[in-house]
From TrEMBL:
Name listed for the protein in its UniProt record: J domain-containing protein
Domain J: 109-182
Record keyword Protease present: no
Domain of life: Eukaryota
PANTHER family assigned: IRON-SULFUR CLUSTER CO-CHAPERONE PROTEIN HSCB (PTHR14021)
A Gene Ontology term for the protein's cellular component: mitochondrion
Length: 302
């Protein structure tokens, strides 16, 4: 009798721990797979577990469905039919084999629209631009002048979606936020209130430095710094702020790849703070040139 009770107790304990794992998984929207790409775990499609006991009394868990959580690439998510010929399509297909353009799929992501098999945290700008141009070639209005008004509307909708996809993915900060949103994390309304006071003080002081340095550019008075002195000050600010931006950017990339969504969202806020400060400095570029100040700005998107 004792031999039967002990396995049952162990089984029940294992079951309760399993239930705890499944329960805690409900707040987890996606995880990286073994290849480093992102997978999505919907809260209503949790992987169930079966508890089994072998002849030796060893308890084990086995999945009753595939343990590989679904990829974002929408070809694995759903299918639909062509409105013209009825052929089966994936959610990513913009055109059917019969040549008819299709409505934008509800599960289509910006990455899908531009041909990426899964969300990419890091994207090479030139490659992104090439993908964008290739897609837009097929959606150009000239290709639909002889088509029905319905097809013209579909092409216009698809083109708008692709434009929005390109605009979002081309800017690192927007791309990072989009990946977070795909994983169900859009940030907390009180997130800014949780920022470290010392960090907010650092940002405030940087903004003051930008303001105090740039005010000499538009209003030249006797005793003000010379153009060369101003150039040195501004260049130092540019290097300091852009360095901070790159540091936070690397942190966001690392956290996203590790699927640490909350930490990534918090770090993304820091990243955006430095970006806004840099944009204030960059907005004075015409004033620099007017004052005879030459500044070297970073190349590529920050």
């Amino acid at each position: 009798m004792l031999r039967k009770i002990i396995p049952y107790a162990l089984l029940r304990g294992k079951y309760l721990r399993t239930q705890s794992i499944v329960s805690s998984t409900k707040s987890c929207y996606s995880l990286p797979n073994v290849n480093g790409s992102f997978c999505n775990c919907s809260s209503n499609k949790l992987i169930g577990h079966l508890v089994s006991v072998n002849d030796s009394g060893k308890i084990s868990l086995s999945a009753n469905s595939s343990p590989c959580l679904r990829l974002f690439h929408c070809t694995s998510l759903s299918s639909r039919k062509c409105w013209e010929c009825g052929d089966v399509l994936t959610a990513c297909d913009c055109f059917c084999k019969c040549g008819k353009i299709q409505p934008v799929g509800q599960t289509l992501t910006y990455f899908d629209a531009l041909g990426y098999p899964h969300p990419c945290v890091e994207i090479e700008p030139h490659e992104l631009t090439q993908r964008f141009r290739e897609v837009q070639k097929r959606l150009h209005p000239d290709k639909f002048t002889q088509k029905s008004s319905y097809e013209q509307k579909l092409a216009s909708d698809a083109s708008t979606f692709v434009n929005r996809a390109y605009s979002t993915l081309a800017r690192p900060a927007d791309r990072f936020q989009y990946i977070l949103s795909l994983n169900g994390y859009t940030g907390d309304t009180t997130e800014k209130e949780k920022m470290d006071p010392s960090f907010l003080m650092e940002i405030m002081e940087l903004n003051e430095d930008v303001h105090n340095t740039c005010k000499y550019l538009c209003n030249k008075n006797p005793g003000d710094p010379s153009p060369s002195e101003l150039g040195e000050r501004i260049q130092k600010l540019v290097c300091h702020i852009s360095g901070k931006i790159e540091e936070e950017k690397k942190n966001v990339i690392r956290l996203l790849k590790e699927s640490k969504w909350k930490d990534a969202q918090h770090t993304l806020l820091r990243y955006r703070y430095f970006l806004r400060t840099f944009e204030q400095l960059e907005a004075r570029e015409l004033c620099w040139k007017g004052a005879g100040v030459s500044i070297k700005l970073p190349t590529g998107p920050l």
